[in-house]
Write a structure and sequence with these properties.
The chain is α/β, with parallel strands linked by helices. It folds into two domains: 161 residues, 3-Layer(aba) Sandwich (Rossmann fold); 164 residues, 3-Layer(aba) Sandwich (Rossmann fold), CATH 3.40.50.2000. It contains 13 helices and 15 strands. The strands form three sheets. The chain has a seven-stranded parallel beta sheet with strand order 3-2-1-5-7-8-9. Strands 12-11-10-13-14-15 form a six-stranded parallel beta sheet, with helices on both faces. The chain is globular. 36% of the residues are buried.
Length: 337
């Protein structure tokens, strides 16, 4: 039985943690013993009930010997010697985002030859990393494996009843952390354009932030709009997503948003901005809309299309199939190579 250790700095109720939980849940327990360690072990309690079923927590200050070490999650202020107690045969870096500390840590472990492979969650990240000096020319070292989602569980959870009524023209949802980089300023502009065109809309917002100040800042942006409903953090956002016409994500940048794929699994089109990975999941006017991050004045021109085409785009998603088995096979092949 192979021993796998996931090394993270903490658990913060984001997409990275969902991906980690889903991967841990679906790796064969007859083949693998899964451990997780956190530099900020207090945060592990947030999802301990969920992930603890599949993983055994180990103290980073105690010695452990494993077959495979996988760096994952944001890495903030990585301390020298954090991995000195970990003995491993192979190591991978599961790279989700271009946070400053995340990439500094990736560069460090690559330059010191501490990782065998870098795993990216979309092709656009892979291409960008291969342009970095410390990975240039090492195409075989960087592989793409999309984040794993339990599509059947998502569909089942989406059937749970909700008390929220739909708007006449458009019902939308944002599933994201309540921070400015998730594009709430652009969302406000889009809603203003809808209001000016007499669109009857409702926007649900499912998410929280690391600090109460961040939550208050975003809520204050919409304090004069009674059509925006903040739901807080939701263990099951799918029941709300299912009743919507669109999933909205107007971020400054996304590496591979789980909510984009979750929406497609439920047959819901996406309204996203033109960050690189958006083009891997959304085709403008085919299964969603891609809006400009820079030219927010163009939103008013897209509003009539967004209203008119909602059913056609939903129809286009009826045959969408999320290939769960292929992603598991990719992980199995990597672990056993």
């Amino acid at each position: 039985m192979k021993k796998i250790l996931f090394y993270t700095n903490g658990i913060y109720r984001g997409g990275i943690e969902i991906a980690l939980c889903n991967l841990a849940a679906h790796l064969d327990k007859n083949k693998y013993k899964i451990y997780v360690t956190c530099t900020d072990k207090n945060t592990f309690k947030i999802l301990e009930k969920r992930i603890g079923v599949y993983c055994e927590y180990v103290d980073i200050n105690k010695e452990i010997e494993v077959d495979i070490l996988i760096f994952c999650n944001y890495v903030s202020k990585p301390a020298e010697g954090d991995i000195k107690n970990i003995k491993y045969k192979k190591s991978y870096f599961w790279f989700h985002c271009f946070g400053e500390n995340q990439e500094k840590f990736l560069e460090k472990v690559c330059r010191e030859n501490l990782v065998d492979k870098v795993i990216t969650v979309c092709d656009s990240i892979r291409e960008e990393l291969l342009n970095r000096e410390y990975l240039k020319g090492q195409d075989s070292k960087v592989v793409t494996i999309k984040n794993i989602l339990d599509s059947e569980e998502i569909k089942v959870k989406s059937q749970e009843k909700v008390e929220v009524s739909r708007a006449k023209d458009l019902t939308m949802i944002v599933i994201a952390r309540l921070v400015k980089e998730k594009g709430f300023g652009r969302v406000k502009i889009l809603l203003k354009d809808m209001k000016q065109q007499n669109i009857d809309y409702k926007l649900l917002v499912a998410g929280t932030a690391n600090t109460e100040e961040q939550v208050v800042e975003i809520k204050n942006m919409f304090k004069d709009d009674e059509k925006v409903i903040f739901l807080g953090y939701q263990e099951n956002p799918y029941k709300y997503l299912k009743i919507c016409d669109y999933n909205v994500l107007l971020s400054d940048r996304e590496n591979m948003s789980l909510s984009m794929i979750e929406a497609k699994i439920l047959g819901i089109p996406n309204i996203v901005t033109d960050f690189e990975s958006a083009f891997e999941e959304v085709t403008d006017m085919q299964n969603g809309f891609i809006l400009s991050r820079e030219n927010t004045d163009s939103y008013k021109e897209r509003v009539p299309q967004i209203v008119k085409e909602k059913q056609r785009l939903k129809d286009n998603l009826k045959n969408f199939k999320y290939d769960f088995d292929e992603i598991i096979d990719q992980w199995e092949n990597l672990i056993n190579c």
